[in-house]
Amino acid sequence: MKRILFLAPASAISVYAKSKIKIAISHLPVISLAVLAAPLQARGHEVRILDLSLYYNYKNKLIEVLEEFQPHFVGLTFTTPLYGDMKHLSSIVKQTNKDIKIIGGGPHATTLPEECLRDSDLDIIVIGEGDNIIADIVERDNLSNINGIAFKHSDKIIINPRLDYIRDLDKLPFPAWDLYDIKKYSVPKIRSKRNPVCSIETSRGCVYKCSFCNKSIDGLTFRPKSAEKVVDEIEHMLSLGIREVHTQDDGFSTDIKRAKKIFDLIIKRKIDVTINIANGIRVDRMDRELLEKAKKAGVYSTGFGIESGSQEILNMIPKSTNLEQIRKSVKLCKDVGIESVGYFMFGLDGETEKTMNETIDFAKSLDLNMAKATITVPFPGTPLFDNWDKKGYIKTKDWTKYNYHDPESESVYEHPNLSRETLVEYYNKFHKEFYLRPGYIADRLMIGIKTGSIFEDIKAAAKINW
Questions:
Q1: In degrees rounded to 5, what are phi and psi of residue 50?
Q2: For a tag site, which of 49, 281, 387, 452 has the least CB within 10 Å?
Q3: How many CA atoms lie within 13 A of 147 on its CB side?
Q4: What is the Cα–Cα distance from 267 to 297, expressed in whole angstroms?
């Protein structure tokens, strides 16, 4: 039996500190760590998850747990914005006990395994999905025979062949939510109805090819859990005291029949659950029947990755959606009684001041409950990054600067049409013009009075730096 400690970086939440609507950011237990811990638990290993975002002095807490638990392995999953945190935490681990083996994973590690190993204290990188790899790393001495990893060997870095994608997700164990004290987490009422909240992954893979998206982990093939497995998992989550579920799929409704069956089973089993399709559904993969079943099953909100109000930009991404589909989908949500949240981006390929004004006008024309815009950051592993890198637009590969939630940060690229100052100007303009409309304010006040959240809404609005 081995001891494994998984770490969630403290800045997994603070990375949103300069986002315009940071008051709506959900603080949830990290699902990927619970997913990776489950197969290790099933094989008899002792596993812990330490969420450093829960501690003010996270460094002291980390050292304390390392000295008390004495893990054989420490696991870290990270995105590009958390690259600097990975290096910092890995250094603390090695300074505390140099014999601990550190395993890294996630989209950035999968995209650049050699660089991550060379420039940090990581010992091993998981390339792609880690569910079936993590136990092999822990249990085998000879890393050369484990596909799907990269590792340090003397002064060399070895990259083994990648494993195929997991085809039958139903065979995976439920995430190890028992390793979290879920009562320590709270999601603002503006983004939840009933705490505590945890995430659910009902599928992996996305068949669409948006230029800004990294598909290095889950790929372009849609791989769903069965509707029965999903609903069984929801019931298991509720048995642990979880009261609300937020979906994290890239393509929850890619198979609309499966999505409808999930809701049918929830209704049939009379499960009392509140659901937020937080990561969104595509506007071309939904219909009224789906939303009506969703509403009856406990869904109160869904996101839409709208990205732009310019059809020209949507075609260039390529998003494979159109403005009329977006209008119809938001209206359907309104008709059925499900909240809608629109996600937008400024600075995509081909963006101009004209297209950004079109996006602002389009967002205001929709009857969205919330809207959030970000300034595009081309992450490694995306077609956008590769294209702009070839054209010389990328200014730096200091990954610590790649935070798309900080509009005031130094730009990591030269946009072909727009200055950083112009992008920030329109980012601010978007949120001001969307949220400070008299009609929107009146609607929010009415909703706040109706739901009892009016004082929290006012408090939240006061925290935004308009």
A1: -115, 110
A2: 452
A3: 5
A4: 5
**Identity (one letter) of the amino acid at 321?**
T
Phi-psi region of 45 (alpha: psi -120 to 50; beta: other; left: phi over 0): beta
413 three-class SS:
strand
401 with 336, same domain?
Answer: yes
Residue 8, pLDDT score:
95
Closest CA to 304 of 363, 231, 245, 244: 363
- The Cβ of residue 114 has, within 10 Å, a number of other Cβ atoms equal to 12
Residues 126 and 200 in one domain: no
Range of 10's domain?
3-159
25 within 8 A of 16, measured Cβ to Cβ: yes
Question: Tokens standing for 363?
Answer: 């967002």
Angle at 317 between CA 329 and CA 398, to 5 degrees: 120
Query: What is the reported pTM?
Result: 0.93
Could you read off the pLDDT of 11-26 as tens digits, one per residue? 765 544 454 554 556 6
Residue 416 lies in a domain: yes
d(CA 20, CA 430): 10
Express each pLDDT in 87-100 by its tens digit: 999 999 999 999 99
Owner of token pair 């065979």: 171
d(CA 199, CA 15) in angstroms, rounded, equals 19
Contact predicate 99/71, CB 8 Å: no
With contact defined as beta carbons under 8 Å apart, do 390 and 320 qualify? no
97 Cα distance to chain centroid: 31
Half-sphere exposure (Cβ direction) of 254: Cα atoms closer than 13 Å: 17
- Beta carbons of 7 and 62 less than 8 angstroms apart: yes
- Cis bond before residue 196 (omega within 30° of 0): yes
**Does 452 reside within a domain?**
no
Q: Would the pLDDT of 241 be above 90?
A: yes
